[in-house]
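Notebook, bench 3.
Goal today: get a predicted structure for Advanced glycosylation end product-specific receptor from Pteropus vampyrus so we can plan the truncation constructs. The sequence was checked against the plasmid map this morning, with no discrepancies at the termini. Length recorded as 414 residues. Pasting the sequence as submitted so the record is complete.
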Amino acid sequence: MATGATVGAWALVLSLWGAAAGSRNLTAQIGKPLVLNCKGAPKKPPQQLEWKLNTGRTEAWKVLSPQGGPWDSVARVLPNGSLLLPAIGIQDEGTFRCRAMSQNGKETKSSYQVRVYQIPGKPEIVDPASKLTAGVPNKVGTCVSEGGYPAGTLSWHLDGKPLIPDGKGVSVKEETRRHPETGLFTLRSELMVTPALGGAPHPTFSCSFSPGLPRRRALHTAPIQLSVWGKQRWGGPLARPVPLEEVQLVVKPESGAVALGGTVTLTCEAPTQPPPQIHWIKDGTPLPLPPSAVLLLSEVGPQDEGTYSCVATHRSHGSQESQAVSISIIETVEEGSTAGSVGGPGLGTLALALGILGGLGIVALLIGIIMWRRWRHQGEKRKAPENQDEEEEERAELNQSEEPEAAESNAGGP
């Protein structure tokens, strides 16, 4: 494993060496190894060469040679004469020079200007505003970039285009801090804008970090989209802000229910200046009417029932549709036509049902009376023969009782 690690290390060294060769101005990422090639140096010892370093770690030129030992863990001369910095840092920025003597006595010099860099984390916008008010200064948010080197710069964009501070409608407050131990930078940029009245209703802001070194890509924040609120004058001082995109539809009567032949008034309220054009939509289809903020439906009939909405169109704010409202007709019954007309269709129906039930009850009662009278008459007829028989029996009994009495009276005579 030691052999494999050594081969891997030398492969890394040789690849970095090949990248560094032929370049006088070098950049290296902090914490990564850097190899500087000494031109003209013999590939194998003995070698006559020396390295001189003037960096943030030295007060004067530091001299290194193959015969001398390494400079702590900062740098050492490799067997091929190159200089290795195992983990370059901010203090290693500076000038590196090598002077080599070939075997035939030819002297070759090499010189490098080394700079280091550290890519920061992705910038972000902190404390973003929830909305903006037209005509007054507003804080959009603060763009923050942390952990970069060199410091770099922050810039703002509006709808994808650079936003240039002018001290009036656009101003930027910047702050740069450096960590006392790592030496890395933290940048903060606070953006203030004053949206114009009648401007874009939904501006999009973003921020980007540009490194302080060439050939390094910029880093961008996620964009934020804000709504602009405008101030309106209504016959007096400035009123409270109203969202430019808010369109309200007011209906009278409020329920949207009206009697047949009644009147409905629809009013579209869009508090923007200048006033927008208002068009009307019924059941998803635009109505062929001239622009108007008021739609009057007189003598409402079944053809007027449906769902209505209005669309406000402004040259700067675009189009915005209101919420829909439903218009319906209340069915009513004329006075005197039914027993329940005063109370509306529901009570009229109930009264009609009660009337029918009452009529059926009266009919049933009459039928019952007729049936009772017929039954009574038939009963009287049945009783009449029975009474005649009883009378005849009584007469017969009386006749029988009279005959013995007559016989006795005859027998007692002379």
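Residues 1-22, 232-244, 335-344, 404-414 have pLDDT under 50 and may be disordered. The domain at 124-230 is CATH 2.60.40.10 (Immunoglobulin-like).
Flagging this for group meeting.
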